[in-house]
Amino acid sequence: MTVETTYRSRRAAAVVGLVVALAVTLGCMGTPGAQPGERSGPGSAAPSGTSGEPVDGTMSVEEFERDIAGAVRLAEQYWQERFTESGQRFEAVGRVLTYSRAGEIACGQQEIPRNNAVYCPAGDFIAYDVNWAVAAFRQIGDAFIFFLLGHEYAHAIQARLGIRHQFTIQAELQADCMAGAYLGDSVQSRQLDLQDGDLDEFRAGLVAVGDDPDQPWFAEGSHGTAEQRIDSFFRGYDRSFAACDLT
User: Fold this and answer.
1) Strand, helix or coil for residue 98
2) Closest of 207, 27, 201, 191 to residue 118, by C-alpha
3) Which helix (H) or strand (E) holds 223?
């Protein structure tokens, strides 16, 4: 997957009722079960490694860093367009931070665990475990990085819109839908070049971060099963953010 230099909006629909607000919960990605392999920005079909595990084929740290920067830039541009269409002021996420040890970064009084990515409303930053993210990038593919940043940026947008949910799973599935909208619209507008295998990489990433089927949906921290997350993501991907109930 590669990021183009121009952006043309797929839809002129406005986001309804934008209100800048501070959320009080941590929006996290969840821990994927996949172990890592590699590529650049989402890209081509994944070859098989010697172990039989699917491997994307990209191994370069420079490529990973380029994809992270491209995903952040694209998410900022996408949501700025949506806010501008609604006549509201947009504020980009303050910082994107990396960490490699549990407790190295905290959100308020809550330490951020390893093998995770989160949006912290208390500090208005996104943080991700760089070792975990690089491993997922190599094993699942570069498309996963665009989803990961899109999901966490969606939590920042929820905070800015003042969206509240009774259960964690509602916020997480909505963020999946919003990440799908950002990516689907960017592909349709030719801002993002979708290559062979990228849709499979999105699915593989969602499977990797899905809850165990026995996880109670109402439990704190539930994100949704793989099937629920795939359904939410592709609903946004196919129908844009209008399918994500942002009112």
Assistant:
1) strand
2) 27
3) none
Coil, helix or strand at residue 133: helix
Neighbouring CB atoms inside 10 A of 108's CB total 11
Does 14 score more than 70 pLDDT?
A: no
| 57, 132 contact by CB (below 8 A) | no
Transcribe 140-194 into DSSP letters. T-HHHHHHHHHHHHHHHHHHHHT---SSHHHHHHHHHHHHHHHHHHHHHTTSEE-
Contacts of 161 (CB under 8 A, 6+ apart): 15, 17, 18, 19, 21, 246
C-alpha distance from residue 201 to each of 14, 16, 177, 183 (Å): 30, 32, 16, 13
Mean pLDDT throughout 56-60? 62
Alpha helices (runs of H) in 5-141, residue ranges in sequence order = 61-85, 130-139
By 3-state DSSP, what share of the chain in percent is helix, strand and coil, each rounded to 5?
45, 10, 45
Distances (CA, A) of 71 to 19, 74, 96, 155, 234: 24, 5, 11, 15, 18
Tell me if 183 sits within 8 A of 150, measured CB to CB. yes
Task: Supply the pLDDT for residue 59.
Answer: 67
What is the rounded CA–CA span in Å between residue 88 and residue 143? 30
Contacts 24+ apart (CB under 8 A), 210-216: 210/30, 211/30
- Which pLDDT tens digit goes with each residue over 156-179? 999 999 999 999 999 999 999 999
